[in-house]
Design a protein that fits this description.
alpha/beta; D-Maltodextrin-Binding Protein, domain 2; 2 domains; six-stranded mixed β-sheet; five-stranded mixed β-sheet; 13 helices; 11 strands; 46% helix
Length: 320
């Protein structure tokens, strides 16, 4: 009896292993079966939050399940990234952020995560930072620079370690000016402060200031990029003004936790790639002046790897 039972157990064990080999992950095949969460690393109202909430309904349509947005602000995103490092790699939690913010924060001090460990899924848009002033102040960049050399101005940032932080440090170094930086949790705070004349200028993505730029409340004076923004063709880039200011494009990306199964990543990647083809989403992007630049998981993973060496060059600036 015992002998037969042992044989039966052994047979069942072998059969189970065989099923696993044939079907590596039933969860991967059936994914998704419950709501998917998009974690925005900034407060509600900021660029990350707004874009996550714009993506969500279209992603729901492609995945066939509810897609919820959860804000996890704090320390510029560090808290959310550290928590995400330990998140279950089942595809039901994705972090939506402005890349390369997470890598910048890594170079600012000790952290409990590594961006390279996260599983790249998709990036839908790419943009550059703007230097923006109040509509009642300087009309040109030359006027702004003259004032900045005469006194220390107050500049807004969407958080320490943000892409605006990097753009600001590089710009100040090249322009030879001094700035009292005021960090906010997300671009919404710095843009609102500038509109209320509590700052002399702020640096933000164009998408974060669109309504106030359109109304004339704010005025963009420089775009930190290698070429002009298609939605803001009259705003000069550093080269137009005789400056050499290196800037990394800011990308809106979605990543999954470390070691997320490839089949789940593929399912998510396919869903995101269809989202950016939706007429409704394309129209939303045009209104927000978001430059769509679809990038799949493999290409995004390469960009993440290459960005470390680029950000490392500015490590001393972050420490100062």
């Amino acid at each position: 009896m015992v002998k037969h039972l042992s044989k039966l157990l052994f047979f069942l064990f072998v059969a189970a292993i065989g099923l696993l080999l044939v079907c590596p992950s039933a969860d991967s095949q059936d994914f998704p079966q419950k709501p998917v969460k998009l974690i925005a690393t900034a407060r509600a109202g900021g660029g990350e939050d707004v874009e996550a909430r714009a993506v969500a309904p279209f992603l729901e349509k492609q995945l066939g399940v509810s897609v919820q947005v959860e804000n996890q602000p704090g320390a510029g995103g560090k808290i959310a990234f550290e928590k995400f490092q330990k998140t279950e790699p089942d595809g039901y939690s994705l972090i939506v952020t402005t890349f390369p913010k997470s890598i910048i924060i890594e170079y600012m001090g000790k952290v409990g995560y590594k961006t390279a460990d996260f599983t790249s899924v998709f990036s839908w848009s790419r943009g550059n930072q703007l230097l923006v002033v109040h509509g009642d102040s300087w009309k040109t960049f030359d006027e702004f620079l003259k004032a900045a050399k005469a006194k220390t101005l107050a500049g807004g940032l969407s958080g320490r370690g943000s892409t605006t932080h990097l753009a600001g440090l590089v710009a100040v170094d090249e322009l030879g000016i001094k700035v009292n930086w005021v960090p906010y949790e997300g671009a919404a705070g710095s843009v609102a402060a500038l509109a209320g004349k509590h700052l002399d200028f702020t640096i933000c993505l164009a998408t974060s200031a669109v309504p106030l730029i359109r109304s004339g409340k704010l005025r963009p004076l420089m775009l930190f990029g290698d070429k002009r923004d298609p939605y803001l063709p009259d705003v000069p880039i550093p080269a137009d003004l005789g400056f050499n200011i290196t800037a990394l494009p800011a990308m809106r990306i979605a990543q999954a936790p470390p070691k997320t199964p490839p089949a789940i990543v593929k399912r998510l990647e396919d869903a995101f790639s269809k989202v950016v083809q939706e007429p409704g989403f394309i129209e939303w992007a045009k209104k927000r002046r978001a430059v769509l630049h679809p990038t799949g998981s493999q290409e995004l993973a390469k960009i993440v790897t290459m960005t470390y060496s680029k950000v490392e060059k500015f490590q001393e600036m972050f420490k100062k």
